[in-house]
Specification:
- The protein is about 25% helix and about 35% strand.
- The protein is α+β, with helices and mostly antiparallel strands.
- The strands form two sheets. Strands 1-2-3-6-7-10-11 form a seven-stranded mixed sheet. Strands 5-4-9-8 form a four-stranded antiparallel sheet.
- Strand 10 and strand 11 form a beta hairpin.
- The chain is globular, with a radius of gyration of 15 Å.
- The two termini are about 25 Å apart.
């Protein structure tokens, strides 16, 4: 993540969670906010969704402040302990990735994203090392994937792209 202050990081994360709520409410998807629940935090899950055709699903909401034309998948959370990042560890069925500056939201299939990530050589991709101040100074490492990446669509994990309307009440699908 491009921010270096934990409070700023949390504020951006909250925007991602709020954007996910707007999208769920737009489509009348019943949900429970689990973002403060320690059990769900360990699973990297923010919301429990209930559907008529499925008993439940997990959704993880991610966000970043600026649009660089890519999305970041965290490979390592804490490089001093080599803690596995959320991109591998999340139990989510759906992942939303909100970018505040462009008001875009990417909706991804969680299991397919993890399956795809396990099938590629991450050492040959552009990665970033960012400070993470949540627990002292440590670094997280993420793989940066261009949103135009045909692999993401072909692999089936990038499901759709949305734009948050100016009234902050609804999204319009753009891809």
């Amino acid at each position: 993540m491009e921010t270096t202050e934990w409070k700023t990081s949390c504020r951006i994360g909250q925007k991602g969670e709020n954007a996910a709520k707007i999208l769920m409410e737009q489509f009348n998807v019943p949900y429970q906010d689990k973002s403060k629940d320690k059990i769900f935090q360990r699973m990297d899950v923010d919301f429990l969704l209930t559907h008529q055709n499925r008993e439940w699903q997990f959704l993880e909401a991610k966000a970043r402040a600026k649009d660089y034309g890519d999305i970041g998948l965290e490979l390592v959370t804490n490089d001093t302990k080599n803690t596995i990042g959320w991109a591998y560890n999340s139990k989510c069925h759906l992942l939303t990735y909100y970018i505040d500056s462009s008001r875009k939201m990417y909706v991804c299939d969680g299991p397919r994203q993890r399956e795809w990530l396990n099938s590629i050589d991450t050492t040959r991709r552009r990665t970033t090392k960012a400070p993470n101040y949540s627990n002292g100074v440590l670094y997280s490492h993420s793989i940066m994937l261009p949103v135009s990446l045909p692999e993401a669509k072909e692999a089936g994990w990038l499901l759709s792209i949305w734009h948050l309307n100016d009234d902050n009440r609804a999204f319009t699908q753009i891809a």
